[in-house]
Design brief:
The structure holds two protein chains of two kinds.
Chain A: E1 2-5, H1 11-19, E2 27-34, E3 38-39, E4 42-43, E5 46-51, H2 55-70, E6 75-81, E7 83-86, E8 90-98, H3 101-118, E9 121-126, E10 132-134, H4 139-150
Parallel strand pairs in A: 1-6
Antiparallel strand pairs in A: 2-8, 3-4, 5-7, 5-9, 6-8, 9-10
Helix pairs in contact in A: 2-3, 3-4
Chain B: E1 2-5, H1 7-13, E2 17-19, H2 29-36, H3 41-46, E3 54-57, E4 60-61, E5 73-77
Parallel strand pairs in B: 1-5
Antiparallel strand pairs in B: 1-2, 3-4, 3-5
The chains are: A alpha+beta, B alpha+beta.
Keywords (chain B): Nucleotide-binding
InterPro entries (chain B): Beta-grasp_dom_sf, MOCS2A, Mopterin_synth/thiamin_S_b, ThiS/MoaD-like
Organism (chain B): Sneathiella sedimenti
Chain lengths: ~150, ~80
């Protein structure tokens, strides 16, 4: 399941909703990305995320489909926010459920790595002096995503 | 054709989207980019380094030069930074 939303979400509620009434799930892994107060040595006071409505949903759905074809997943969820976010708030949530932990762990890792380099979101940081700047792509993220291509 | 700009491309061009008429100048993505560079200093700057500009046609990433039609939606944006 894919959700692209402006509103904040509750991690506990989301995991519970995914697993309630299911007795076949043995493992649930979740990853949450939060707004941090420092990036590349600069103090950050807030974050704004822009995205490409339509393409975002398509890309996330493709990434989720790919994960479900590679691993034995019983349920999966990707929530990604856009708009203004305060420090400490969640930006993204990935939840995967499988009979055993290996598939859930691997799939969650994959989903985040691919999402980082494929889903059309762009972060803009606000700093204490009132400046805003677009966040640059990280080489480490590109490398992390490539790992899943060579190991496929 | 509908053209969309995101992130710093949007900021530099001071435009989120525009509609342009199909012509030979924009018959494919390579031609469209060549034409974009001729539209003034801001456009020339934005399209000067194509390593940092991604292109999507009808909400799909393209790989290589892609033929364009009048109903197509073309988006220009920097490498993504979500997650």
């Amino acid at each position: 399941m894919i959700r692209v939303q402006r509103d904040i979400f509750d991690i506990g509620e989301e995991i519970e909703a995914l697993t309630t009434g299911r007795t076949d799930i043995g493992a649930v892994v979740s990853f949450t990305g939060l707004v941090r107060d420092i990036n590349d040595g600069n103090d950050v006071t807030g974050l704004s995320l822009e995205h490409y409505p339509g393409m975002t949903e398509r890309e996330l759905a493709k990434i989720e489909k790919e994960a479900r074809s590679r691993w034995d997943l019983q349920a999966s969820l990707i929530i990604h926010r856009y708009g203004e976010m305060a420090l400490g708030e969640p930006i993204v949530l990935v939840v995967t459920a499988s009979p055993h932990r290996h598939d859930a762990f691997e799939a969650a890792h994959f989903l985040m790595d691919w999402l980082k380099t494929k889903a059309p979101f762009w972060k803009q940081e606000m700093t204490a002096d009132g400046d805003t700047s677009w966040v640059k792509e990280r080489e480490s993220d590109v490398k992390a995503a490539k790992r899943w291509t060579t190991n496929a | 054709m509908k053209i969309l700009y995101f992130a710093w491309l949007k900021t530099k061009l001071q435009m989120t989207e525009e509609t342009i008429s199909w012509s030979e100048d924009c018959r494919d993505t390579d031609s469209l980019v060549r034409w974009m560079k001729t539209r003034g200093p801001a456009f020339a700057e934005v399209f000067s380094d194509l390593e940092v500009v991604r292109i999507a046609v009808n909400q799909e990433y393209i790989t290589g030069n892609t033929t364009l039609g009048k109903e197509d939606e073309i988006a220009f944006f920097p490498p993504v930074t979500g997650g």
